[in-house]
Amino acid sequence: MPIDCPALLHTLFEGSAEALIALDAERRITHWNSAAQQLFGYAAAEMLGQPLLALSPADRRRESQQLLTLPETEAAQPHRALLAGKNGRMVSVSLRTRPLPGHDGQAPGLLLFLRECGTSLDLQQSQQLQALVANSDDGIITKDLNGIITSWNPGAERLFGWLAEEIIGRPMRTLIPADRQHEEDHILKRLVAGEKIDHFETERLRKDGSTVFVSVTASPLRDAQGLVVGASKIARDIGVRLQAERVIHHHATVDPVTGLLNRRAFGERLREMLAQATSDGRRMALLMIDLDRFKAVNDTLGHHVGDLLLRQVGRRLRQVLREGDVIARQGGDEFTALLPQVGQPAEAMAVAQRISQALAEPFLIEGRRPAIGGSVGVAVFPDDGRSAELLMQHADEAMYGSKRAGGSRAARLSAAEQAAAQDRARLLADLQPAISQGQLRLVYQPVRRFADGSVLRSEALVRWAHPERGLLGPGLFIPLAEEAGLLNALGDWVFREATRQLADWRRRLNPRLQVSINLSPSQLRAGSDYFRGWSQHLRELALPPSALILEITEGMMVDDSRDTTHLLRRIREHGAQIAIDDFGTGYSSLSQLSRLDVQYLKVDQSFVRQMQAGERELALVEAVVSMAHKLGLQVVAEGVETPEQARLLQAMGCDYGQGYLYARPLPPEEFEHQIRAC
Ligand code: C2E
Ligand code: MG
Ligand code: MG
After folding, report:
1. pLDDT attached to residue 62
2. DSSP class of residue 384?
3. What distance in Å separates the CA atoms of residue 95 and residue 282, rounded to the nearest whole number?
4. Rounded distance between C-alpha atoms, residue 563 and residue 527, angstroms
């Protein structure tokens, strides 16, 4: 018996587990099976004759559009759609279509196969969410995996200038500036991998072509099976914040006088560019530029002219240097430049020379023509160092070299100079803890009276017992201590140790013993406060100040101001004696010394060494001795090494001799031994 075809069809239709809905050419519902009833909660009687749009959720433009544009032919891929069932129940479906041939000349219809997928949201909940989205100030957007925009809230309309109906269905790329298109690929890749992207700050295009700075947070959207099917994006306008940040950044990185980078920003750039040059295997150069005679301009023409001059220097540096070079002002009259790519070190030197030439040209500022110059130090990466610190140090040393050589020139350290500079840097680091860790020692060199060969006096000379390098002489570390600002602490230690030792010797050996100590310029500069503690200390040791001789060099009196003169008078009034050390190497006049009430002149060893009968030096020392005596000063000859020198000195009436002929500087025990033997 043939099977009743309509009955069979009816059974298949009603028995299908899939919801089946047939539509006519106007997209009105003509068939509605029981699975559809189960899915949406509507009985066939309620739905037949209704437009398909009846299943579209309120305020869901996208779903409505989708339903209106269902393909006429068999769809290759099932659609996804969020539809509304009875009582506001949201139904998420996967939807396939098949064309239905039209009867009796009617237009063809459509058969929909629907299967529930994903979770369904209660409409109330969904509406709450939608209200949140609609009222948010942030742009909230969803897109599918092809990067096509699928929803767009009013916040996004305000942010980007596109209305939802204009932009939905368009690619996300519409919003992305040409030079940032790669970002979208990157973001999509991460989203597909299930990653979330938090607060990604970037630039996006508005409809009118202007750009807007946004912070984007993007999260993958998944289906019920957990597969990523798209992404949601929240975009926040950060233009105002960025602008504020830029202003702050500008102040933190730019030198207000010249508009160049400041020291901090330069440090950052240097580190970045070093990392780059290291990975690219490139040579780069660091230039340290210090102006010559700037201080004089500032002092004579005023700070205003000084500032204008600094600005012009900045401009000249820009003219000499290239576009990609970095220029900064380190502070004061010091500038730095980075040349990110140099072929040979000689190239960097050529640039440095051009800079010093450019700065030697006269400037014209408010009718004045201040003449300055520039000393430039060059350090090349990697030849002269690989770290920022080392390059800065070498460029700095080289710059000082240029200055010492007269300024207005460029220099780079030789390998030997670099090694010495590094050695000094290491020693400097060791010196800081040396004082507190008791690594300093004093040695005592006897000072002998020619008249009777007696030794009642010694000069205390400092040594550093370095834990690895052994005993170091002051020539190696006094300049470092000065650089590190440790000289006053060191001098204080010398004073305390020498006077402690002297008090002990005077008690045990001879109450007439004296000791002389060397002062440095910075101690005199520190003024009377520094020495106040010293008188107190002498009282505590019951040492008369006259037991102490303070040695200062000529230079310390010549350059220094009235304050120094005043201070030396105070020291004299207290009873301590003053000796002028290394006499003959500076420019002081004997009459100046007498005014200062100095007791001793120590003739520098360079004269004593060259003293021979008939030589100029002999005549000179003789003249010094006789003039000093006329002014009431006593003379100590330094560096007496030979009996011949001793004889000549004695013959001319020199008062004291100090030198290897009699004794080298001795540790305290040995000095004590000598005194006892006398
Ligand atoms: P200075 O005060 O002129 O000390 C004399 C220097 O000549 C000492 O060198 C001494 O060892 C050396 N000398 C002594 N006799 C002879 C000799 O016959 N021939 C030769 N060639 N040299 C001789 P030293 O100890 O290396 O000290 C060098 C300088 O370091 C001192 O010159 C002094 O200016 C400074 N100095 C030493 N100790 C101190 C200190 O405690 N404080 C300060 N501020 N400076 C110090
Ligand atoms: Mg001395
Ligand atoms: Mg000396």
Report:
1. 60
2. T
3. 60
4. 8
Which atom number of ligand 1 is nearest to the Cα of residue 640?
18
Which of 584, 581, 591, 517 has its CA nearest to residue 547? 517
Q: Measuring from atom 4 of ligand 1, which residue has the nearest CA? A: 461
**Residue ranges around ligand 1 (CB below 6 Å):** 445, 461-462, 473-475, 478, 491, 494, 517-520, 551, 581-582, 605, 638-641, 658-660, 665
Q: Determine the pLDDT at residue 108.
A: 82
> 474-483 and 415-436 helices cross at what angle (nearest 10)?
80
User: Could you give phi then psi for residue 82, rounded to 5 degrees?
Assistant: -110, 115
Mean pLDDT value of segment 612-641 = 87
pLDDT at 61 over 60: no
pLDDT band at 65 (very low <50, low <70, confident <90, very high): low
Question: Which among 632, 645, 566 has a CA at the least distance from the CA of 600?
Answer: 632
Q: What DSSP element (H or E) covers 618?
A: helix 616-630
Question: Is residue 115 scored above 90 in pLDDT?
Answer: no
- Tell how far the Cα of 670 is from the centroid of ligand 2, in angstroms: 20
From the alpha carbon of 474, which atom of ligand 1 is closest? Answer: 30
| 601 Cα–ligand 2 center, Å | 11
Is the model's pLDDT at 88 over the cut of 80?
A: no
Q: CA-CA distance, 286 to 353, in Å (whole number)? A: 13
Looking at residues 277-300, what average pLDDT do you find? Answer: 94
Q: What is the pLDDT of residues 116-164, one digit of tens each?
A: 875 545 555 666 777 788 888 899 999 988 888 988 999 999 999 999 9
